[in-house]
Amino acid sequence: MEEFVVTPWEVRGKINYDKLVKNFGTKYIDESLLQKIKKLTGDLHFLLRRKIFYSHRDLDKLLNDYERGIPFYLYTGRGPSGHVHLGHLIPWILTKWLQDRFNVKLLFQITDDEKFLFKKTLSLEDALNYAYDNILDIIALGFDHRKTEIFIDTEYIKSLYKIALKVAKHLTYSTVKAAFGFDSSYNIGAIFFTAIQSAPAFIEYERNKRLINCLIPCAIDQDPHFRLTRDVAKVLKYPKPCLIHSKFFPSLSGLDKMSSSEEVSCIYVTDDEELVRKKIWKAVTGGRGTVKEQREKGGIPKNCSIFMYYYYLFEPDDNKLREIENKCKNGELLCGDCKEDLILRINKFLKEHRKKREKAKDLIDKYLVRD
Amino acid sequence: MEEFVVTPWEVRGKINYDKLVKNFGTKYIDESLLQKIKKLTGDLHFLLRRKIFYSHRDLDKLLNDYERGIPFYLYTGRGPSGHVHLGHLIPWILTKWLQDRFNVKLLFQITDDEKFLFKKTLSLEDALNYAYDNILDIIALGFDHRKTEIFIDTEYIKSLYKIALKVAKHLTYSTVKAAFGFDSSYNIGAIFFTAIQSAPAFIEYERNKRLINCLIPCAIDQDPHFRLTRDVAKVLKYPKPCLIHSKFFPSLSGLDKMSSSEEVSCIYVTDDEELVRKKIWKAVTGGRGTVKEQREKGGIPKNCSIFMYYYYLFEPDDNKLREIENKCKNGELLCGDCKEDLILRINKFLKEHRKKREKAKDLIDKYLVRD
After folding, report:
1. Which CATH number fits the domain that encloses residue B107?
2. Has the ipTM of the complex gone over 0.90?
3. A121 SS3 class
4. Residue A90 lies in a domain
5. Considering only CB atoms, which chain B residues are within 8 Å of A154?
6. What's the half-sphere exposure (Cβ side, CA atoms, 13 Å) at B28?
7. What chain B residue is nearest to A177 in terms of C-alpha separation?
8. Does A267 lie in the same domain as A224?
9. Is the dihedral of CA B230, B233, B235, B239 positive or negative?
10. A&B contacts, CB < 8 Å
11. Rounded to two decimals, what is the model's pTM?
12. From A162, which residue of chain B is nearest by alpha-carbon distance?
């Protein structure tokens, strides 16, 4: 019986994050590594403090290199098969923080080719439209345009293709099949695609022809791609890309489920105030059956999707977060209180985001690179 | 026991061309089809008359369409893994003739990506260098630059990629494996590649958005690619490309072998006069053991690689060819006579070719299209 599944194209079941570290062969971001980051940046983002980014590959090595004067750049991405939801923002928010703190270049890959190849009913034209839509959300987060290159695969393929070919030559069907669980009914584009996702991990090294590391912040489901990338790096004599992995943003419809394709289980950046209200009121909480019971026994924050929204995104202050947690546990806060408060916070955030998103329409050319 | 093997990447054994027609499911170019071509063009190229181009897919349909006013364009290609030899010229010579006679556009694909992916020791840089080298030979044949677009895959990938993705989405690993005989040790680039070779068969239709047929002159080993292309065409609602298939240029080292990778069995366009002389004198002929025997019994032209050189390329005049054949059969001609004569003809041809090849260096920009 399978407990849970995590691949770049499917995440389901109740995810055991410790098991992923073990199965994937990654390392935990431990206290000493956090202290090292803090030493270099001056502080720690709550996504790191709270171990939402919890796993890594060679981050220690990259930071040691950095201290010795070997630079790095950031690389992350987005598969444009629909609108952006709040969960998608998590890796990008940390990526922005890292860009600001380390003052480094960021490559942002939009994989319209991937989404077209993996989604039966998605046309290439629609994937491209979503790409342009999603780019507005990315720009809205405030990346430094002088240090950020966003590109859409089908419009940047000439820059990616040669490196992708070099990667592809060293990846057999067997290897890719084992890494992703493909069978022979998969299409040949899907099989090839991982080579395209590898390319940005090497492109800066190829361009500069001097040692530069690559740091990839991503949700942990993307790790199988970059395991292959790292294996091939050795053969091609490229530096191995380093990774930091996040957990998945929790679903509103229960913490043992992922949010991805279920409409009501997540908040899209395009959701209006009423829809946000509706979704949050429907959310699964850690509350008790009755008000009386909750006042007596208190709620259970660790089972509460509302609390998780505070934890992951909407209460960056650890003291205030602890206050919410304690007040819930001792019955002071009722679920309705939290829901109303969260609705306000989300709608405030989305209102701001949509403003920045509108402005982003005039900024696209500052970020987008094309062949 | 396998009798012979014909795939796009391997041709060996004594080839049974009738069996290929049967196995591949193509049709013979028969007399009525030849008459139809003649009706439209005014004459017949000797490569057609002599059934060196002997097989087709839907050429009849394409010509009927043409008569009804539906245009077509030509598409052929070259895999640049080394210098061009005389055998490579055969499909291109007919392609030029078709371009001249029908006054149509030609797309010429140079698959540097393919050669890199399939040749273990070939670098991408070397494949690209061979691409530029081979393009000179192509231009030297005199294609009409106003109607010819030559492109190198890695430099034209942006134009090809979207169509290739659409093709790839409809080709499973199973299908490609069966068509080419791949196993799971093949690299993922090699598996994907056929989608890139499909793209030019659809690109003019995509651009024009009006019905235009595509005619692909090629050696018959390329047919498996285009069988897949044709299957996918149906799904994507593109016109199915039509094909005419040539036999392989015979080897100098015996007619039961292919020339491709054996250095002495073929003449490269770069071979100097002395090397041509050496190779031709080493060639396997249909001659007898002694001069005396040959004078008495005559030679056997159908077993003679020298005669095949006349047949395929160096004696376009059927009457003169018959004269050579008869004189050989009745012992008038000795092998040395033919060899000396052929050496003169080849060296004259190559001298001319190399002159045109030099001039081609200044013409590249008139032919080459890049993204």
Report:
1. 3.40.50.620
2. yes
3. coil
4. yes
5. 158, 161-162, 165
6. 10
7. B184
8. no
9. negative
10. 115
11. 0.95
12. B154
